[in-house]
Amino acid sequence: AQTVTQSQPEMSVQEAETVTLSCTYDTSENNYYLFWYKQPPSRQMILVIRQEAYKQQNATENRFSVNFQKAAKSFSLKISDSQLGDTAMYFCAFMKPVFGATNKLIFGTGTLLAVQP
Amino acid sequence: DGGITQSPKYLFRKEGQNVTLSCEQNLNHDAMYWYRQDPGQGLRLIYYSQIVNDFQKGDIAEGYSVSREKKESFPLTVTSAQKNPTAFYLCASRRTDSYGYTFGSGTRLTVV
């Protein structure tokens, strides 16, 4: 069974600084997707970034980028130029994509990020 | 705008009562999911449905039931058999040919 581990329950960063959130996972699969979701105080789950395991290039979305280390089973999220609106709970998630199957998301326990002014 | 609507946002029930959480989507998505969120535990899958009139148990289905009579709707009933029902419940949907989820804004259920 796949598992996702986020070892940092809480983190804090100053506005405009850079912060890295850690995520490790365990799987015997070779083809899978990894995600970072953001859950602000409104509790709406928002997709931040997605990485396909077959892609060697790390995904980036504006100020958000990942460091995907497949052999180490590590998937960290870097937030550059942190903004107050980045304050949220961040979840790392794993999916084994199979057409027609469950395609469920397996979530880590989350990291609560506070951006300080 | 297309999206997922969960209602109500907050729900209070007495212990021993069944309660139904609503989830409606107008995205024309085939697959729908219910997740439960507890502090320090992330999100866990309760039930999912890939087509109308079909649904499957997830990882923590005990004490819950669902129906999928319409493509747009996937209500979740929390029964009296659920031992610890107080939690935040999230509904999600997905197109069959995509691996991206769309989430609703959730329902906070408190059982007293």
Protein model, in words:
The complex is a heterodimer of chains A (117) and B (112). Chain A is an all-beta fold and 117 residues long. Chain A contains no helices and twelve strands. Chain A is 0% helix and 50% strand. In chain A, the strands form three sheets. In chain A, strands 2, 5, 6, 10, 11 and 12 form a six-stranded mixed beta sheet that branches. A four-stranded antiparallel beta sheet of chain A has the order 3-9-8-7, with no helix packed on it. In chain A, strands 1-4 form a two-stranded antiparallel sheet. Chain A is globular and about 45 Å long. Chain B has no helices and eleven strands. In chain B, the strands form two sheets. In chain B, strands 2, 4, 5, 6, 9, 10 and 11 form a seven-stranded mixed beta sheet that branches. Chain B is globular and about 40 Å long. The model of chain B has no long low-confidence stretch (mean pLDDT 93). The interface between A and B is medium-sized, with 23 and 26 residues.
The portion of residues assigned to helices of chain A is under 10%
Q: Report the mean per-residue pLDDT of chain B as an integer.
A: 93
Overall body shape of chain B: globular
Strand content of chain A: over 45%
Task: Give the helix/strand class of chain A.
Answer: mainly beta
Shape of chain A: globular
Secondary structure tally: strands of chain B: 11
Largest sheet of chain B: 7 strands, mixed
Number of helices of chain B: 0
Calculate the terminal CA-CA distance of chain A, rounded to whole Å: 41 Å
Helix and strand pattern of chain A: EEEEEEEEEEEE
Tell me the number of strands of chain A. 12
Order of helices and strands of chain B: EEEEEEEEEEE
Helix content of chain B: under 10%
Structural class of chain B: mainly beta
Please describe the structure with a list of short key phrases separated by commas or semicolons.
heterodimer; A: 117 residues; mainly beta; six-stranded mixed beta sheet; four-stranded antiparallel beta sheet; globular; B: 112 residues; 11 strands
